[in-house]
Write a structure and sequence with these properties.
It is an enzyme of class 2 (transferase). Catalyzes the formation of acetyl phosphate from acetate and ATP. Can also catalyze the reverse reaction. By secondary structure, this protein is an alpha/beta fold. The chain contains 16 helices and 14 strands. The strands form 2 sheets. The protein has an 8-stranded mixed sheet with strand order 5-4-3-2-1-6-8-7, sandwiched between helices. Strands 11-10-9-12-14-13 form a 6-stranded mixed sheet, sandwiched between helices. A hairpin with a 4-residue loop joins strand 1 and strand 2. Helix 1 packs parallel to helix 4 and helix 7 packs across helix 16. 45% of the residues are buried. The chain binds adenosine-5'-diphosphate.
């Protein structure tokens, strides 16, 4: 059937892709090209439970998309089933409040937002241009991480700095993980009738992590800001802290403010505190064998996540649902338990047996009998949202 969508997610040094069929319900093939820009880049295809790896002579986005095109030429049934391409785009600024069909004006708009996402947006624009070149007949759609949060009220999205910075430079909170939050909101409405009319808190906890409050299906506040550095402690990012630290670190280490910022972005968070790893699984293993630094890092992560859940909850009338998602939210029963232990004052309680037995990759209700809020584990599916947006836009 002719109903497949190629979903492309271009990072600064990677390109993830997937081809989804059957209204996004079936993943035919998926893969990742990584270490782009180095001499050791390769692309992996996962098809029919088997993995194949192709080394890239020249590791760049164009070659990665060319390899996808070549793979498709050898699987012509899938190639002929393609009807469009959906691109994940990190930053849509204030220009993009929803997904859009891509034309030159949209590419220019994505490029204009590069100042806020200098590693990602230029890579997205490149990926889109290459895809137009290699798949000239296919319509393409851009799906923005920031778009879902364009419903925030000014008192939530403005920073308390001189207004001229907002007027002249658009410095404000944008928020990220919007495609994930939109998926969770819609999925929750399907599995828990009426939840789209209620107050929902979501913790998207992966290497990057954020929280979001969803009021009647719309984002009312989120923890990330003008960039994904604000808010929670993350794998390598510090999250929110006293901005004076940038000046202290740069003076103490005799480095520039940008270099200090780089430390907050790449050497902080779980990695910086544990001095072991940014990876939650590795830290849980270290903690299990008695490493106190790993435990401290994980417990700080949990405490700060709870704080940012409460912070965004101030925009809700009631907290009817709390959802954990993302690699950590879906898989770490330890962190879910510690996070919820900080939310007792709000009467949010989980059942420890249900929490520990939550099956991997499934939607699961882990609420305790005495909880005011229903607590869920729901695996996110950003690729599905991108495919559905693409189908919907190309059919109109
Ligand atoms: P991102 O998309 O932001 O790169 P993911 O959502 O893939 O991140 O989440 C990655 C994180 O999820 C890593 O810290 C990883 O250790 C954690 N994770 C994955 N599986 C497990 C697990 N079984 N237990 C604990 N943490 C896990």
């Amino acid at each position: 059937m002719k109903d497949s969508i190629l979903v492309i997610n271009c990072g600064s040094s990677s390109l993830k892709f997937a081809i989804l069929a059957n209204a996004g319900q079936t993943t035919l093939v998926e893969g990742i090209a990584d270490r782009l820009g180095s001499s050791e880049s390769s692309i992996t295809f996962k098809y029919q439970e088997k993995k194949s790896i192709v080394m890239l002579d020249e590791g760049n986005h164009k070659n990665a998309v060319t390899q996808v095109k070549l793979w498709l030429s050898a699987h012509s049934d899938i190639e002929h089933s393609l009807i469009g391409i959906g691109h994940r785009v990190v930053h849509g600024g204030e220009a993009f409040t929803k997904s859009v069909l891509i034309n030159q004006e949209v590419i220019n708009g994505i490029t204009d937002c590069s100042k806020f996402a200098p590693l990602h947006n230029p890579a997205h624009a490149k990926g889109i241009e290459v895809a137009f070149e290699l798949f000239p007949g296919l319509p393409q759609v851009a799906v923005f991480d920031t778009a879902f949060h364009q419903t925030l009220a000014p008192e939530q999205f403005l920073y308390p700095i001189p207004m001229s910075f907002y007027r002249e430079h658009h410095f404000r909170k944008y928020g990220f993980h919007g495609t994930s939050y939109r998926y969770i909101s819609q999925r929750l409405a399907q599995i828990s009738l009426g939840s789209d009319q209620q107050g929902v808190l979501v913790a998207h906890l992966g290497n990057g992590a954020s929280t979001c409050a969803i009021n009647h299906g719309q984002s009312s506040d989120t923890s990330m800001g003008i960039t994904p550095l604000e808010g929670l402690m993350m794998g390598t990012r510090s999250g929110s802290l006293d901005p004076s630290l940038i000046s202290f670190i740069s003076h103490a280490e005799n480095i520039s403010a940008d270099e200090a910022l780089d430390i907050l972005s790449k050497k902080s968070g779980l990695l910086g505190v544990s001095e072991i790893s940014n990876d939650c699984r590795t830290l849980e293993e270290a903690m299990a064998s008695g490493d106190q630094r790993a435990k401290l890092a994980l417990d700080m992560f949990a405490a700060r996540t709870a704080k940012h859940l409460v912070s965004v909850a101030t925009t809700l009338e009631s907290i009817d649902h709390l959802v954990f998602t993302g690699g950590i939210g879906e898989n770490s029963s330890y962190l879910r338990q510690v996070i919820c232990s900080h939310l007792k004052a709000l009467n949010i309680n989980i059942d420890s047996t249900l929490n520990e037995s939550a099956p991997r990759g499934a939607e699961y209700d882990i609420t305790a009998n005495n909880s005011n809020t229903t607590v869920w584990v729901i695996p996110t599916n950003e690729e599905l949202m991108i495919a559905l947006d693409t189908i919907s836009l190309i059919q109109h």
